[in-house]
Structure of Glyoxalase-like domain-containing protein:
Amino acid sequence: MTTHQIALGAINMEAQDPAALAEFWASVTGALPSPGGDSVYLPPAGPGGFAMFFQPMKGPRPEHQAFHLDLTVPWGSRQAEVDRLLSLGATYRWDVLDEFPHVQWTTLADLEGNLFCVAEHPPADQQGA
């Protein structure tokens, strides 16, 4: 059996203002931005973190976002993290709290309207049937 060694290298995003969007995400993740020309690289903030790369927009933003980030926080800390992200400039979009027994999340948008979720998973003994 073949074992695959694949990992996420970086999330690449086009931005109207790559430097400002990188600063927002640096505040979210705790990483230090590394600008280079018109683009900005944001390395992983630590083990298990993820890198991001911001570059200038090459065309109009699509009306429908085809994917988004799901960020996970420890059980019981979602609301505090959402409050912190709102204070950094994120915009609240909606909550999904009672639909699924194994997860609760809040959907937010970053400074340029890119959606992302902050999710928490209850311990197995607290998940409903």
Remarks:
- The chain has two domains: 9-57, 65-129.
- Strands lie at 11-15, 34-36, 39-42, 52-56, 69-72, 91-96, 104-109, 115-120.
- The domain at 9-57 is CATH 3.10.180.10 (2,3-Dihydroxybiphenyl 1,2-Dioxygenase; domain 1).
